[in-house]
Amino acid sequence: MDLVDKPNRGPFLISVDVGIHPTLAETFEIMQGSLDLASSEDTIQGMLQITAVTASPSIVLTPNRMALWKKIREATDAGGCSSDPVAYVEMIKESGSNSFSFPTHISAAALQGAQSNEPFVSYSALTGKKSLEPMNADSCIGYINWHIRADKQNQLKLRSPLRRIDVDVIKGVARVYSGADLKQQDRAVQALHHRMKVDPSYTCLTYGASS
Known about the structure:
Elements (H helix, E strand, L loop, with lengths): L12 E10 L14 H4 L4 E12 L6 H16 L7 E8 L4 E8 L2 H9 L3 E4 L6 E4 L3 H13 L9 E3 L2 H14 L9 H12 L13
Parallel strand pairs: 1-3
Antiparallel strand pairs: 1-2, 2-7, 3-4, 5-6
């Protein structure tokens, strides 16, 4: 679906895969199995990170979800933004075992920014170096993740201790780099694997893998 060039007035789904990742790059050593969380799990600080965003143009909403979507659609229309799309966003964690969803208005300003296709300024999470990034989904996700990563005082309230299930996802990516079939891994592992391939912040953590 080309949401940017052909905004959709009807309901559509945007799936946002998220995970809890270590706040410090060094703690990704758990991918190599060198860290035992049995005794130290609560001491490892994690933060929410987006790993993938996908859109589905044709969906059938449950009656409750449709009612919520219609409420936002009507409010958007009443506000003079009848041509703007209203999406149903589903935040997915742990390959779908934990999720929540909500309808949201996508403003004309946001669409125009994407349509302009102009590069934007970003900063390296590792070096702080400024660079121009292309206007595409991967670079925008990377910028959001950088903003969360830079929030060292947790003003966004998006930090929490890593749990075993969070570590298992990272270890799953390590198995792929060691030769495991990516297609056989669950959704969370596949999403993180892709993010590590396209996000420069993870370059030093892929152990030279190109799969």
